[in-house]
Amino acid sequence: MSIDQTKSSLGLLLTISRELATTLDLKEALFKVIQLSMQNVGAERGSLIAVNEKMEPIEAAIITDGRPIKHTIGQLRTLLEHGLAGNVINNQTSVWIRDTSKDDRWLRRPDDDKDQTGAKSAICMPLKARDSMVGVLTIVHPQPDYFTQEQFIMLEAIADLAGIAIHNASLYASLQSSNQRYQELFEDSIDPIFITDWNGKITESNRQGAKCIGKSNERLQKFINDFHSINWQEVGEKFVHLRAGKTASYESEMHCIEQNLPVEIHVRKAIINEQEVLQWIIRDISERKALDSLREDLMAMIYHDLRSPLANIISSLDILNSLLPDQNDQVRPVFQIAVRSTDRMQRLINSLLDIKRLEAGQPIANMKAIRIDEMIHEASETVDPTAQSKRQAILIDVPSDLPEMMGDENMLKRVLINLLENAIKFSPLDGNIQIGARIDDAMFSIWVADSGPGIPNEARDRIFNKFTRLQAKQFPKGIGLGLAFCKLAVTAHNGKIWVDSEAGSGSRFNILLPVKQDTLPE
């Protein structure tokens, strides 16, 4: 190659490099590459197909006789599957065909016939960036054996530049698409979203956020703490917890222009335009709060409106018990059912009262020395008729030499009864229920195990929340207060309660209670 040819080639590459540097639009970049390549060799037609990491076509530029040719993704896919471009994609090496009529790799078209334009010459090259395929370039001239070695080398250099340009354009397109999706999600969110700097100054808000605090520029010069009280314990002083990558969640009250709303705040660190910011998602929990209030009113109504009639029923049953003959085998079983049912209603109402008291932080009032072994036997005797109706056996494993502990005997016994009733409810006919206790490192370890369907992993903590019920068909229905009471009662005694379970293998509820009330579990 002469000095003049070398200068011309370097000048062309510089021109191509400058042209490609002026755009990050993928389609525009493809057309510039194919146009400059065809001009360099005087080609009849050319194509440049960009592919993704799966070697699937994503965009293309096709030119014939100086005119862009419309195409579909299906047509591009056919070219990659059957044409010369497909061969290059599979082998990732350049192909130089001097006579298309003599090479089976060329996908013939009607104009390749002898009575049309006839045989041609073609060069097809892979375009790579960072050792990954990003496209395939095909240049066709109407004369066989037309291209020279210098042109082939020049096209390889163009292909190297084009690979980088297409890669950058693809990254830019992907970034633009991601930004657009984020912006759509940001704007279309039903929750107000605010973006602030590390000082809490609001720099951006979505539509719902603007509706909440107002749209004026003056309002956007405000700080997030102008509209709600930040829980500094959750976010850390000067947002130190958020700087460490923690997501903070807490409840607060949002001061919107129309009204104040109870809200749940979710805030975390985010990266937007290479800048660290804080993203605040504000969730309106008015309906949830109203529902909680309704539930509290319902609980209070159940407690107050049922307590007095139930007391009358219990008194009436006591009187009937003294009047019934001991030998009346027909009436006595029915009477016992009524007694057990009223006892169960009384336990439920007392549990409702204890839930309200314990949630309010009131201390346990009826502390006294109690024997765990006796309490376990009494709880088992209480639920034994229900277990017998399902042909279930309650197996008790408790030593008689356990020491006494200080606690509310009535409350703890209801905890055990609740756990036993649950075990009976979930266990099949002829199943076994196990209850036991041991001393374990200065702690009472108490357990109740059933042979039921087990509890899913994701529900093991949730089942101790109020009004939580498992939805699957194999789980009996309930109001979702029994385990909530159990946790509150055990926690009030400085203890812990949890469940071990495997699907299909039953559940084991475990309780740890300190032997001495000044001993706290770790």
- What is the structural class? alpha+beta
Silhouette: elongated
The main sheet orders its strands as: 3-2-1-6-5-4
The CATH architecture category of the largest domain equals 2-Layer Sandwich
* Largest sheet properties: 6 strands, antiparallel
Mean residue pLDDT: 83
CATH C-level class of the largest domain is: Alpha Beta
Percent in strands: 15-25%
The total tally of domains equals 4
Topology, number of strands: 18
Your description of this structure?
This protein has 522 residues and is of the alpha+beta class. It folds into four domains: 3-180, Beta-Lactamase, CATH 3.30.450.40; 191-284, Beta-Lactamase; 286-362, Helix Hairpins (Orthogonal Bundle); 366-522, Histidine kinase-like ATPase, C-terminal domain (Heat Shock Protein 90, 2-Layer Sandwich), CATH 3.30.565. Helix content is 43%, strand content 23%. It has 14 helices and 18 strands. The chain has helices at residues 3-21, 26-41, 73-82, 84-91, 149-188, 207-213, 217-220, 232-235, 240-243, 286-323, 331-359, 372-389, 409-426, 482-492, and strands at residues 45-51, 57-64, 67-68, 95-97, 121-129, 132-141, 193-196, 202-205, 248-255, 260-272, 275-284, 368-371, 393-397, 404-407, 432-439, 443-449, 496-501, 507-514. A six-stranded antiparallel sheet has the order 3-2-1-6-5-4, sandwiched between helices. A five-stranded antiparallel sheet has the order 8-7-11-10-9, with helices on both faces. A hairpin with a 4-residue loop joins strand 9 (248-255) and strand 10 (260-272). Helix 1 packs antiparallel against helix 2 and helix 13 runs antiparallel to helix 14 (482-492).
